[in-house]
């Protein structure tokens, strides 16, 4: 994971972090906006809450996920000076996909046909553990 992150641009790294740490699909990672991140109901930390997910979540479904503590500082830095309607990641999903493929090649990481979706699988495996 670290090798991939080291070989990506800053914007692609943001998308990689959202996919890996929150289980987002690539489309969700590039289309999520500042307004989707709210203080969680416990008053500490952040929660991703997407009520109407058209263009963001698969099938436009509702999605709610707590932001892991290890991602909070990075997320807060990404939201500085952005309005609620602005996207967190300012590149297209094809740019993210290409950036990850190049980073994997540079780092010598075999993707085994998964590409960006492998981050979602890693997130799910970690949650199961």
The rough form would be described as globular
Unreliable stretches (pLDDT < 50, length at least 5) are none
Query: In sequence order, what are the helices and strands, one letter per element?
Result: HHHEEEHHH
Overall residue-averaged pLDDT value: 92
Name the helicity range. 40-55%
Structural class by sheet pairing and helices: mainly alpha
The counted number of beta strands is: 3
Terminal Cα separation, in Å? Answer: 18 Å
Query: What's the tally of helices?
Result: 6
| Gyration radius, in Å | 14 Å
Strand content: 5-15%
Strand order of the largest sheet: 1-2-3
Outline the biggest β-sheet. Answer: 3 strands, antiparallel
Describe the 3D structure.
The chain has helices spanning 2-6, 10-22, 26-31, 69-79, 93-107, 117-128; strands at 37-39, 46-50, 63-66. The protein has 129 residues and is mostly helical. Helix 2 crosses helix 5 (93-107).
Put the structure in a nutshell.
With 129 residues, this protein is mainly α. 48% of the residues lie in helices and 9% in strands.
């Amino acid at each position: 994971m670290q090798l991939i992150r080291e070989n990506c641009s800053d914007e692609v790294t943001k998308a990689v972090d959202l996919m890996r740490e929150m289980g987002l699909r690539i489309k969700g990672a590039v289309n999520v906006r500042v307004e989707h991140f709210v203080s969680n109901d416990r008053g500490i930390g952040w929660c991703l809450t997407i009520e109407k997910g058209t263009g963001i979540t698969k099938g436009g479904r509702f999605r709610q996920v707590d932001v892991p503590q290890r991602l909070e500082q990075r997320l807060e830095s990404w939201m500085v000076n952005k309005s609620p309607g602005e996207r967190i990641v300012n590149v297209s999903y094809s740019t993210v996909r290409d950036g990850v493929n190049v980073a994997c090649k540079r780092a010598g990481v075999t993707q085994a046909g998964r590409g960006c979706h492998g981050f979602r699988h890693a997130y799910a495996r970690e949650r199961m553990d």
